[in-house]
């Protein structure tokens, strides 16, 4: 049963039915019976249509890293819309796209210096996987078609992404997906890692499983390995110490491309432009999205190493080198939003701020250790995750209730996966607002235990 919702205070005088919008990754009937609706946002807060502030402890969906409705970004989007609303980037171009690509590439480590644009994290991941396959094919290694993901990995919802992804409900109903895919084991073991701040001491050995996968399939069949430096969607699982370095070594040994999915970890979430820098590991490709525009306009992309780009730049010059792209790749509004966002990150030192804030944030989150029903707390950068014991009513029920109580009673938005609560606030958060998150979470957890 959905309710009629009065949008009066939003933009229209007529009460609307909530039925038509089939919401993604949402319990639609429960939402429509008791909506968690926001109508406005500024800096660290959302506001309900009635004007009640909601502390944004999740940067929306891990994306509003600069905070909400920031003036310089808003103005840049408005100006761009008036000046050049749309231009194709197939065979034509516009300056803002080239500027944005250069600025993004500047932030990437090593020789990652070319950017392929798309519009979301899912598209970024599928693009990276396709580039990997095409790269090997062009070099005459046509047998290298196998893609390796990881259990508990999330790489969006395209067929490529769900194939290498490791979340069973995201895969269950969608047929055979890509063939020739295998998965590394995930890196989480509560017994060995519970209540870790930052990268857990234990777990680098899980990278050795790649050797086993190579032995099973033969390196000559493997195109790429894709991992998130911190698995976000399955509950904020930071890479164990040394894990990513070891993956890099094994990939190098066998000529396998290493893709970092930095859709969440990019643009300051872990205190650096990209987590690659935090871990001192240069991948062959970085998939990004979300924070690149602070969530204001959809944008994603893949940053590739020079050698990969150069491999494609062969053959007659009038011939298209990569048969891939999206109508909205390098959309003027997204590029303008991105340039303004990157300026803001730089001018306000927000990546450094996240790094400085990390210990304060970690201590604050860990203060909830010992609460009844809290099985683990993990932190890294400005990410905190809380595993709650499932309720006797079944897995996910307590997490869902926490989301409702958090929003309706305690004025906080966070992310819920099963019975895990995840927080990832905008990087502009103040110390007192970190305290506020802890208070609100604490009250929320108490209410659902
Ligand atoms: C690591 C990672 N990759 C890919 C995606 C998919 O991004 P999008 O929802 O923009 O397609 C997400 C989204 O949360 C993500 O966290």
UniProtKB/TrEMBL annotation:
<dbReference type="InterPro" id="IPR015424">
    <property type="entry name" value="PyrdxlP-dep_Trfase"/>
</dbReference>
<dbReference type="GO" id="GO:0030170">
    <property type="term" value="F:pyridoxal phosphate binding"/>
</dbReference>
<dbReference type="GO" id="GO:0008483">
    <property type="term" value="F:transaminase activity"/>
</dbReference>
<keyword id="KW-0032">Aminotransferase</keyword>
<keyword id="KW-0663">Pyridoxal phosphate</keyword>
<comment type="similarity">
    <text>Belongs to the class-III pyridoxal-phosphate-dependent aminotransferase family.</text>
</comment>
<dbReference type="InterPro" id="IPR049704">
    <property type="entry name" value="Aminotrans_3_PPA_site"/>
</dbReference>
<dbReference type="InterPro" id="IPR015422">
    <property type="entry name" value="PyrdxlP-dep_Trfase_small"/>
</dbReference>
<keyword id="KW-0808">Transferase</keyword>
<protein>
    <submittedName>
        <fullName>Aspartate aminotransferase family protein</fullName>
    </submittedName>
</protein>
<dbReference type="InterPro" id="IPR005814">
    <property type="entry name" value="Aminotrans_3"/>
</dbReference>
<dbReference type="Pfam" id="PF00202">
    <property type="entry name" value="Aminotran_3"/>
</dbReference>
<dbReference type="InterPro" id="IPR015421">
    <property type="entry name" value="PyrdxlP-dep_Trfase_major"/>
</dbReference>
């Amino acid at each position: 049963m959905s309710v009629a919702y009065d949008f009066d205070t939003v933009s229209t005088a007529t009460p609307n039915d909530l039925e038509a919008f089939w919401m993604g990754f949402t319990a639609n009937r429960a939402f429509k019976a008791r909506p968690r609706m926001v109508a406005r946002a500024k800096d660290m807060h959302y506001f309900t249509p009635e004007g009640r502030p909601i502390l944004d402890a999740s940067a929306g969906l891990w994306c509003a890293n600069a905070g909400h409705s920031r003036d310089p970004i808003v103005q840049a989007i408005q100006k761009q819309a008036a000046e050049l609303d749309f231009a194709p980037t197939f065979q034509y171009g516009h300056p803002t796209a080239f500027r944005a690509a250069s600025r993004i590439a500047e932030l990437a480590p090593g020789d990652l210096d070319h950017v392929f644009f798309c519009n979301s994290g899912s598209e970024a991941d599928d693009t990276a996987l396709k580039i990997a396959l095409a790269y090997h094919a062009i070099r005459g290694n046509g047998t290298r078609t196998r893609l390796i993901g990881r259990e508990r990995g999330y790489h969006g919802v395209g067929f490529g992404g769900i194939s290498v992804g490791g979340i069973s409900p995201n895969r269950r109903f969608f047929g055979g997906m890509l063939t020739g895919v295998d998965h590394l084991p995930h890196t989480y073991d509560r017994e060995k890692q519970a209540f870790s701040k930052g990268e857990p001491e234990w777990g680098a050995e899980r990278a050795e499983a790649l050797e086993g996968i190579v032995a099973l399939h033969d390196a000559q069949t493997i195109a790429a390995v894709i991992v998130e430096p911190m698995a976000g969607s399955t509950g904020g699982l930071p890479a164990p110490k040394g894990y990513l370095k070891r993956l890099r070594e094994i990939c190098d040994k066998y000529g396998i491309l290493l893709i970092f999915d930095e859709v969440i970890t990019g643009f300051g979430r872990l205190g650096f432009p990209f987590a690659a820098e935090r871990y001192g590991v240069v991948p062959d490709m970085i998939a990004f999205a979300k924070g690149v525009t602070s969530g204001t306009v959809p944008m994603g992309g893949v940053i590739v190493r020079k050698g990969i780009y150069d491999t494609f730049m062969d053959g007659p010059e009038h011939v298209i080198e990569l048969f891939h792209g999206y109508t909205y790749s390098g959309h003027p509004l997204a590029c303008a939003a991105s340039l303004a966002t990157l300026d803001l990150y730089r001018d306000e030192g927000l990546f450094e701020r996240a790094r400085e804030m990390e210990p304060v944030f970690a201590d604050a989150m860990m203060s909830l250790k010992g609460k009844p029903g809290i099985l683990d707390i993990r932190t890294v950068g400005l990410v905190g995750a809380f595993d709650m014991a499932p309720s006797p009513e079944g897995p996910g029920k307590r997490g869902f209730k926490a989301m409702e109580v958090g929003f309706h009673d305690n004025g906080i938005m966070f992310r819920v996966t099963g019975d895990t609560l995840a927080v990832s606030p905008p990087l502009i958060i103040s110390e007192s607002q970190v305290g506020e998150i802890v208070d609100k979470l604490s009250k929320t957890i108490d209410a659902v235990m």
